[in-house]
Amino acid sequence: MDRLINSLTRLRATQLLFLTWVLTCIAGTTTPESILPGFKATPNPSVSSFQPLLNDPTGNFSLGFLRVGQTQLALAVLHVASSQPLWLANPTQLATWSDRTQFFFNGSLVISDPNTRVFWSTQTNGDTVVLLNSSNLQIQKLDNPVTVLWQSFDFPTNTLVENQNFTANMSLISSNGLYSMRLGYNFYALYAKFQDNAADHMYWKHTALEARAAIVQGQGPIHALVNSDGYLGLYQNSTANPVDVQPFNSYNRPIDLFLLVRLEPDGNLKAYYWDGSNWVEDFKAISNTCQLPSPCGSYGLCTPQSCSCLDNRTEFRSGSDCVPVETGDFCGEQLVKDKYEVLTRNGVEVPFKELMQYETTSSLGECEGLCENNCSCWGAVYNNASGFCFMLDYPIQTLVSVGDESNVGYFKVREGAGKKKNKAVAIVGLVAGGGAILILIGIGGFWTYRIWRKKTRENDDDDEVSPGPYKNLGSESSKSIEVEMCNR
């Protein structure tokens, strides 16, 4: 009998939701507030930015197709007023913006891509999809009571919004995939991925002060929550007594605004509130730009005012690295000195050194020796006053410029890495400065030379004159001469 009542209850609820959706469409609103089994949508070729598919009851948030570039598609939840994405279904890969790409609900939310078939799926057996006024996308089972089978709040991307639980089995990932935020036993921290297939490096950490309650070991993991009162709180068993409060600028101010926390592409963790027309920065974890993971790129040097390169011979260019980031390390080949060049620089320091391990050595030479004979070491920074030797077991990122000349950096650079960079820069500068004309002249001269040589050889054959200086060279030598002439 109970099963029959539950079935009738679910049937009535489904009918009511379907009737609501039909009436909404008749009233002239094309975007529904719930999705039922059988729903199907495809990308509209004429849409240039966002195609809404589902709205929350307030109209503040919308689920839809977000166009990325010309050819790609992301299923996203947006803050409508600012067009700011708050959640993406599959941020590491994007579907194709094509009329053959389908988004449908058959108990699961599914994206079917023409190249990969099932591109993404929630793998559920639900009755309806709703977008709450918190921006949380849910798949619900219309039992008595209604149960939530899946929700987007459990799968954050780079953003946390008000009252969204962030637990120990979740990660915030920056949009470029380089940085992450995770919870520990009594802290939350930021990590950088400097190298594939290697451990992430912690570069910022906030430990619970336990000002209001204590963390009890064995009583469950902590979780974080963006509180509408203007802070990021850490909790253990409930949201009533936070064990830690990280206040924002709006902390305890009587404002009714939408808050979010986002892990930015530069690795900083920031909080914002929407003031009705703009996102206002409310908090940032790292206030000193030079303490970010790599503000000046690889082999860069950061000062509070500007960026430069560790190698003074290389000019810093915004948006590019001083020396290209190498994808491998020195353990993939025999470690001999002729495989790399050594770059040294005084007055440098490792950022976030408080979170790094170090060796204590008696001299700079001893510190350099530890790195020289270790294939996984890319460089080292030695402090002459303390004897601390910081070994860098990842491709060299931005270093911090300091006034203390006794801080010495020792860095390995793959042989020719910097030279290739300088050649490329020289060619770009040549073309930009009118060098294209010189190149054309060089090409014309080369082909004039080739024609002259052909006629000379023909004459030589006819007149049986002794060969010129290049006549009897082997084919490889002839090729090298042609290349040399072309380079001239």
UniProtKB/TrEMBL annotation:
Keyword terms of this UniProt record: Disulfide bond, Glycoprotein, Membrane, Signal, Transmembrane, Transmembrane helix
InterPro entries assigned to the protein according to its UniProt record, in alphabetical order: Bulb-type_lectin_dom, Bulb-type_lectin_dom_sf, G-type_lectin_kinases/EP1-like, Pan_app, S_locus_glycoprot_dom, SLSG/EP1
Annotated TM spans: 424-449
An individual GO BP term: recognition of pollen
Biased composition (Basic and acidic residues): 479-488
Signal sequence region: 1-27
PANTHER family for this protein: G-TYPE LECTIN S-RECEPTOR-LIKE SERINE/THREONINE-PROTEIN KINASE SD2-5
Name this polypeptide is given: Apple domain-containing protein
Lineage, uppermost ranks: Eukaryota, Viridiplantae, Streptophyta, Embryophyta, Tracheophyta
Gene name of the record: LOC115953584
